[in-house]
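Note to self: the last two entries modelled the partners one at a time, which told us nothing about the interface. This time every component goes in together.
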Amino acid sequence: MLIKKPRLGELPASEITEYGVYLNRRQFLNSAAIAATASMLPLSFARGDSTPEPTYKELVKSAYSTEESLTTFESVTTYNNFYEFGTDKASPALMATEFPDKAKPWRVTIDGECDKPGEYDYDDLIKPFSLEERIYRLRCVEGWSMVIPWVGFPLADLIKKAQPNSRAKFVEFTTLNDPEQMPGLNRNVLDWPYVEGLRIDEAMNPLTLISVGLYGNELLGQNGAPIRLVVPWKYGFKSIKSIVRIRFVENMPRSAWMKAGPNEYGFYSNVNPDVDHPRWSQGRERRIGEFLKRKTEMFNGYGEQVAQMYTGMDLRKYF
Ligand code: MTE
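The predicted structure of the combined assembly is written out below.
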């Protein structure tokens, strides 16, 4: 049987939840769940309003942080895109509660065109780097955005340690591919595993972050625990979650979204209000928690740091 793979914009409306609908449904789910299991739940969960106390102490504050108001912890951790746990916004938080405990110790392979490849346990991988708090905007291709206080370190620091050679023109990232832990992998929505890529200068740009936490705590499963990418001037799908492999390559990687819809999802995917998605405008966005839409900024407002990497490129062609 030939199963047509739905693209991000082709998924049934029920799967790409509008935020208002999502909130109503979530309120219903919350009250039903609380009524059913209130006696078993810790109070903080039952209240549903708790931003946890930070467990990462003394994080270096980054000069790259935006000063805009933060999206609530509740929204950041319950309105997610993580198709390995379902295409619905609510599914990742509901389905990833045990993740990635079973996958521990989490291993990350660094290989390809570099002089210092290696396979690392998560703890050993991040040990050499000092963690910062970076408050970044994340603009999803579907038209919503959030402001999130990430915890992480520049990808450039990790790349320098791996010592890419002169053939390393791109970096390819791969997500864990374990259907036992990630029920969404049993559905044919993308050509799994989820793969993303950056040009080497984009990967080395000081804005590009390896994130291991948010709101002062370790990442939750739904946000891409234990280690993910955050590329704030690109559409959210470039910020690949739950990474198990970082590979230096000579040729441009083909991401999972490029395979699913080459005319709709390009390699660069820089936030660009002047280049619409073939089926919807990219000119405006809804900041989660706000009612009115706002204008989307070129490079998501990070042009000063990144525009020079695209000088002379036709951004309609290289979308
Ligand atoms: N990474 C993997 N492995 N699988 C995914 O489905 N979704 C992407 C990106 N990273 C995705 C992923 C999309 S479309 C977005 S908008 C962001 O993760 C969402 O990150 P958040 O849920 O932490 O806000």
